[in-house]
């Protein structure tokens, strides 16, 4: 074969690769390893809050009591014992009665997104999501070349009037599925109201599209009462769960809960994708949620993140120019900030780095990579309240300086 | 949305799902949990041979010394420290000098197959492989709808004259890539000779196709001298490695070593597929291969499997009818058995179960699902020599009875 250079490889890759954007920002971040830089960019849970003894106890099950199973290949859908634990977690989160047989375990919820795209998307299919939405969902779906259409949100989540307008354009059966993060959306931080959840499900029936409910942050509520999950309102919803925010993302364990006809097809696609997930990690996850006081640890997460969220909102209020706005999350990891149209937060990143702060510019959360350059996702999950305050002060200065 | 039944889901799935075959045999196997059944079907390493203390020592690094990193998200290409270990493993396996930056870590080598398919295959692209070949590779590639063409092998691996004939049909640039398992092929058990390896690389240059070298079994040689890997003969080869057979498949850790232009594109596809692999498992793997006497443990694997291989070959010689033939592996996990054309080993599976033995019928290893019904893959890796002898005796009886 000829030498595999950038040039020859470009001529060999599949068309779908051309629809993928590499994140230029990611490269910039990789360069940003200076100690004095405060990051509002990553969506990383603070795993230092996990009690060491709980982690060890859960790990012991994998290297000791369940060793032979944990080291061996598992079934493609994952360990039935672990699925049972996920059914229990869903029950404590407001979705009772999910049959563990209707749960398929994935390598993080990211793999769930890929598998659902792989199972359902033909090139050109129309799919809907919030705009902005989770970057990783856009990447997962883009590989299967759909037309992705974004529906704007306000503080009550996706706007149902705009959704209905869009649905009318495509007619019944014209949309393959709608992807939503109803709780503390990534990157918006907003939560879909109960009224809109009900309306969304009505529309899904009227226009016959599937609903994918992605719920990584649902357990991280800092104020107010939980809102009934879509999956609890209608059992045909395809629900995506993960332990990345309630336990540890390094264990890459998520799941899909869906009607068995869906699970069967997704399972077929997973056979070729990775055969099975890590049984070792599944055993650990299973024991973490049965043998350790995980709800106490979760309460500690909630207290810590709540304090950080408050610190960020207070700092935004204190430092940001008057014409900058932001969302007011009651949970999750993120605030969505909107500067005036003429402020380009992509172009300002080098100045921000200079000032010792990084954030994720908003355009990465739109399929066109262009919309949202005046916006940014600010993560409050990982830094201390003091650092968050300093970071927002620095960012405000960058925005102000850009207009001087 | 309408209820997601088998019927409605069938109308919603992407076209690629229709090109996937579910394994009917898998269902039969699931039913075969009787204690008196000896399995020649699975390709499972015997993880009970792993020293408990080595596993614990490696796990300790993940839950204790490297805890924070092991529990957190990692980079998409995987931990650089783990890539360094894989470069070392490749060096001890005859491929020196691979830059760890040219290694991307995957969720088992199965994900490597999926990612390479996702990166390179357009619907209709021609790809070549041995026939029969690894079922999981067929499943991984089939999702991207290529035309898969099989080249027969003999005891010296893929037949180069038949390969050349096929290449002539497609012309220069007419084949996207060739996938091969040169050492102790799955399911064939055969090994590509050095002479043919060199010829294969010549042909790859003449006809300009990429070569994917999948090497799960290379370290499990029971006789003779290792043959130089394709990757060592030509550094542009795309090499797939795994720790599933030298350590533990439950940790789902494999890798791709390839020119950086390839790694870059594969990395882009992996971002959307699962974001990153399990950092927890990568830390364990890393420490297993640096802090424990893994080559001693490997020697124990080799001794045990060698004995089982000999037992199976002796039993085949002793019990099989004269018109049945089989390959004579010098390593790996499998023997490929060929019965006369009129013996249907798919149809005979229920009788085999009745007799207390299962095997994998050969048709699963061909893309059409039809060729090879008179063949079977026999795994000698998991059962004791006594059990293997009994299993072959039972299988021979099933074949003989079918002709009575």
List the helices and strands and how they pair.
Two copies of one chain form a homodimer.
Chain A: H1 6-12, H2 15-18, H3 24-31, E1 38-39, H4 52-65, H5 67-71, H6 80-92, E2 103-107, H7 108-120, E3 126-130, H8 135-142, E4 147-151, E5 153-154, E6 157-158, H9 160-170, E7 177-180, H10 194-207, E8 210-214, H11 230-233, E9 238-242, E10 253-257, H12 260-274, H13 279-291, H14 294-319, E11 325-326, E12 334-338, H15 349-355, E13 357-358, E14 360-361, E15 375-379, H16 385-402
Parallel strand pairs in A: 1-13, 3-4, 3-7, 7-8, 8-9
Antiparallel strand pairs in A: 2-10, 5-6, 9-10, 11-12, 12-15, 14-15
Helix content of chain A: 40-55%
The tally of beta strands of chain A, per DSSP, is: 15
Which spans of chain A of ≥5 residues are poorly predicted at pLDDT below 50? none
Total number of helices of chain A = 16
Class by helix and strand content of chain A? alpha/beta
- Radius of gyration of chain A equals 21 Å
Strand order of the largest sheet of chain A: 2-10-9-8-7-3-4
Strand content of chain A: 5-15%
| Main beta sheet strand tally, sense and closure of chain A | 7 strands, mixed
Average pLDDT, all residues of chain A: 95
Shape, per Cα inertia axes of chain A: globular
- Termini gap of chain A: 57 Å
**Which two chains touch over the largest interface?**
A-B, 91 and 91 residues
Question: What would the keywords be for this entry?
Answer:
404 residues; seven-stranded mixed β-sheet; four-stranded antiparallel β-sheet; 15 strands; globular
């Amino acid at each position: 074969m000829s030498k595999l250079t950038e040039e020859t490889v470009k001529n060999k890759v599949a068309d779908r690769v051309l629809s993928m954007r590499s994140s230029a920002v990611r490269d910039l971040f990789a360069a940003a390893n200076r100690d004095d830089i405060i990051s509002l960019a990553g969506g990383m849970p603070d795993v230092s809050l996990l009690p060491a003894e709980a982690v060890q106890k859960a790990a012991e099950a994998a290297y000791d009591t369940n060793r032979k199973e944990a080291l061996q290949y598992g079934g493609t859908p994952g360990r039935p014992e672990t699925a049972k634990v996920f059914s229990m977690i869903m029950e404590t989160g407001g979705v009772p009665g999910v049959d563990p047989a209707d749960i398929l375990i994935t390598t993080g919820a990211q793999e769930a997104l890929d598998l659902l795209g792989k199972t359902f998307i033909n090139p050109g299919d129309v799919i809907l999501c919030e705009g902005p939405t989770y970057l990783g969902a856009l990447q997962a779906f883009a590989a299967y070349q759909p037309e992705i259409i974004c529906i704007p949100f306000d503080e009550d989540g996706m706007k149902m009037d705009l959704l209905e307008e869009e649905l009318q354009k495509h007619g019944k059966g014209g949309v393959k599925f709608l992807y939503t993060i109803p709780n503390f959306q990534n990157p918006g931080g907003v939560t879909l109201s109960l009224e809109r959840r009900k309306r969304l499900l009505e529309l899904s029936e009227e226009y016959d599209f599937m609903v994918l409910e992605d719920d990584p942050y649902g357990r991280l509520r800092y104020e107010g009462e939980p809102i009934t999950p879509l999956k609890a309102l209608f059992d045909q919803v395809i629900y995506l769960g993960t332990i990345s925010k309630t336990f540890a993302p390094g264990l890459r364990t998520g799941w899909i809960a869906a009607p068995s006809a869906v699970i069967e097809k997704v399972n077929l696609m997973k056979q070729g994708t990775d055969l099975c997930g890590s049984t070792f990690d599944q055993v650990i996850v299973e024991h973490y949620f049965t043998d350790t006081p995980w709800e106490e640890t979760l309460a500690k997460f909630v207290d810590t993140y709540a304090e950080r969220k408050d610190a960020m909102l207070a700092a935004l209020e204190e430092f940001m120019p008057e014409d900058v706005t932001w969302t007011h999350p009651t949970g999750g990891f993120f605030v969505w900030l909107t500067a005036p149209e003429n402020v380009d937060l992509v172009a300002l990143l080098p100045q921000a780095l200079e000032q010792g702060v990084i954030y994720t510019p908003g355009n990465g959360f739109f399929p066109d990579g262009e919309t949202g350059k005046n916006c940014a996702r600010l993560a409050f999950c990982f830094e201390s309240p003091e650092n968050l305050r300093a970071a927002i002060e620095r960012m405000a200065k960058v925005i102000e300086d850009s207009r001087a």
